[in-house]
Request: fold
Amino acid sequence: MKHLPQQFKIGAMTVSPPTVMAPLAGITDLPLRKIAKKAGAGLVCSEMISANGLIHQTGKTVDMIRSHPDEKPLSVQIFGADPAIMAQAAIVVENTGADILDINFGCSVRKVVKTGSGVALMRTPDLAAKVLKAVRKAIAIPLTIKIRTGWSADGVQALEIARMAEDVGVDAIAVHPRTASQGFRGRSDWLLIKKVRDTISIPVIGNGDIVTAANALKMFAETRCHGVMVGRAAVGNPWLFGQIEALLNNEEPLPVTLGMIQTGMRHYLQTAIDYYGETHACRIMRSRLGWFVKGLPHNSRFREAITQISRKDDAVAAIGAYIVFLESCAVGKDSDQPVS
Reply:
């Protein structure tokens, strides 16, 4: 298969392997980013952070850009529509030690769009250009943007924004080829990724409908993108990044086993405890540990068992009991057998 890159560059920053954990609001906090990086992601991204919140140090926004050497390189994504505020926020991000600054041009949530931010910037190219110019002038680290198709399926806005972004000094563009109204529904249009790739010379990162490692290789081949970005499919299955890397190296991907799932959940639990403290972390894990058992037999049994956990020991016991149950049923007799 043609076009299987081993790495790509964003400015002077090398991303190897050429895989990116997508920024996911309310999900890609430091614990999850560390899990994704450990599992093989070449680059991880923070969840979307308000530029206003950063410069005014409101709520939890400053805490959201806390980092750790284990997750490097790190891209921090901000959103906003005021050029001056965005530039100030970008400086804050750079000063915290982030490796890349990303600007969100894709969020279609109403409360973000009504402020002129997110995907709203794709229908105000003049304002978008002012934002990018102000941020580019303010920081020295690489600058990227994440865009959608735009407000219509023809992708004209995406191509216009991509050309403008390259002209003002953006270092790479991630393309999620769904329209503003689609959200995450329907199929993403990979042809648009190829069109953007053929239009500009800076790196293009493809995003959308990568559920398996084979999907990633297909995207590389069909779009000639420089890197692939995986979001929802890697939540609960971070091993997907290692499987993609294996295929890029012409190796057989390792199947996910019950042992890997158990170890992964326990590691995620401990990482969250280290970051949030035991009580808060366990409250968060009541829903997040359930991500790891999606598609497994009787997963509702496990989800029910973790709804009231408040201590690490409770969570570890619930994880262990569910794995023992799975080993005794059709999933397999031993934790080293592939789950599927």
Summary: The chain is about 40% helix and 15% strand. The domain at 258-327 is CATH 1.10.1200.80 (Non-ribosomal Peptide Synthetase Peptidyl Carrier Protein; Chain A). The chain has two domains: 8-248, 258-327. The chain has a mean pLDDT of 92.
